[in-house]
## 1
Amino acid sequence: QVQLVESGGGSVQAGGSLRLSCAASGSIFSIYVMGWYRQAPGKQRELVAFVTRGNSTNYADSVKGRFTISRNNANSMVYLQMNSLEPEDTATYYCATRADRRSPLIYGMDYWGKGTLVTVSS
């Protein structure tokens, strides 16, 4: 079992920045992929970005060039630096992990946090 706790959400004006953090605990040795998803009101949950243990990254087209995912394996943390935020980025952001090398794009994630709300006003 892996427990995930997100922090860093809040309200910001368009063009601003936020940094989300996620702390993993439990069976952290089993984590291979760490990532962020988001779900806006009335919309499906979507992948934002993920990073593998070897620091390979993948981003949704909508956030490329604006968001940066990073990972600290020493303290089992994953971060999402969000710059140039837009009202369309308003959503609840979820941290998630996967234990094996299979792509989350196809197989999804194993464990999820409870989410942190990001609100971007115009």
## 2
Amino acid sequence: QVQLAESGGGLVQAGGSLRLSCTLTVSGRDFTFYTMGWFRQAPEKEREFVAAISRVGGTTAYADSVKGRSTISRDGAKVTLQMSSLTPDDTAVYYCAANLGGGVWPFRPSYWGQGTQVTVSS
């Protein structure tokens, strides 16, 4: 059984930063087998890829929309996404995701967290 628990998010002013964390819990398998990452979904838009990190954290991938102002990192079963220079366009529900094996691009997760709301005010 795979579970993803997100934390962080909330209301942030434009120009500010945010930090999202996600902890992977796996029964019966080593968590290091899982690639992890983040997607987001804004109102009335498709869910889109944000960032991903490899099983041991050596490889990362970012969407063009967040590249240069975001960092994804990993400490074992915990993944953190830090974003800065936020704009209202970053407002969305952010979902932590994981996949057994696979790469960071394309990142096609099989497991999803419940999502955490991020709202950027102008």
## 3
Amino acid sequence: QVQLVESGGGLVQTGGSLRLSCAASGRTFGLYAMAWFRQTPGKEREFVAVIDQFDSATYYSGSVKGRFTISRDNGHHILYLQMDNLQPEDTAVYYCAARSPQISRFAAEYHIWGQGTQVTVSS
């Protein structure tokens, strides 16, 4: 199975942009649906976006739709999350996750997780 490592988090002002990356080890990256979740202290992990293994279907939570874009590079085994017009409520630890074969919005259905990367949006 793949192992996942996120990068690209940081501190940004309201209205700014960041691009998160999730690098996957192993040669089976293309078999997995990939998703981004986020979590703040004391809250459950929240679905952000998901992309199928064929790079043909994407889905977003209502709170990020139109501002965030999920994409993947199966040749280089990397998942991305482009985040534009960031708001203070986007502040969280962002996690990438993998499952096979179907997409899901539910964190409990993912069994492979990265370690997370902190995103902080200042007002």
